[in-house]
Amino acid sequence: MLKRIREDIACVFDRDPAARNTFEVLSTYPGVHAVIMHRVSHRLWCAGLKWLAKLLSTIARWFTGVEIHPGAKIGRRLFIDHGMGVVIGETSEIGDDCTIYHGVTLGGTSWDSGKRHPTLANDVIVGAGAKVLGPITLSSGARVGSNAVVVKDVESGATVVGIPGRVVRKAVSEDDGRRHALAKKMGFDAYGMGPDTPDPVAHAVNCMLDYIHAMDEKMDCMSSTIKGLGGDVPDVYMPDLDEKVIKNALPDEWDKPSGNGV
Known about the structure:
UDP N-Acetylglucosamine Acyltransferase, domain 1, elongated, 6-stranded mixed β-sheet, 262 residues, alpha/beta, 15 strands, 2 domains
């Protein structure tokens, strides 16, 4: 257990540029305190000392603002940044090298006994204020954006945002060799979001506009072909699509390119 505690402290330096030295992390980081106290309370829980384990977890909540049920299973090098308001339910399972920000809930959606809380695989990041609910699985490398509400499984490497959570970026296939390059470009996704993560609504609007333009070109091609064969295609007035008017009507952040933009 001491080895894991040392790892919990050391991993802070990889994920928080504000960390300066070990003494500072050990004495002033509530997320680290919460994880250390959970490791002790979980040992007590597994040994059958459930009341004592619950008491220790309650004390940890008083001092850190982080509520972790002693029955939750937590892997190595979990980093809870800031910590305040984090809730991790009894049957939650968290893999190695995960990062959780303040205000996150790993909660249940029923009162039934058994597995009712989420499972986070390795290297998952859950952004501030996000709610991950039910016995779902967030596969390795998944990212959850701030304030998202996730109630369905998330595939490996995908990024989820919104209410309810929607996938806005999927993993790059390992077979084509680009995944490593993408990970290097992204680096560490603070708060579960990369700088070039597209807005899902803007992406949907852009896809519809692309479809309209494609249909317009196809209709022009069909009309030309019919006229070439001697058919009669009446001319119908089509108003111009003024892209400037559309962009002025949308919020400023939608004017950023998302890969399918006009």
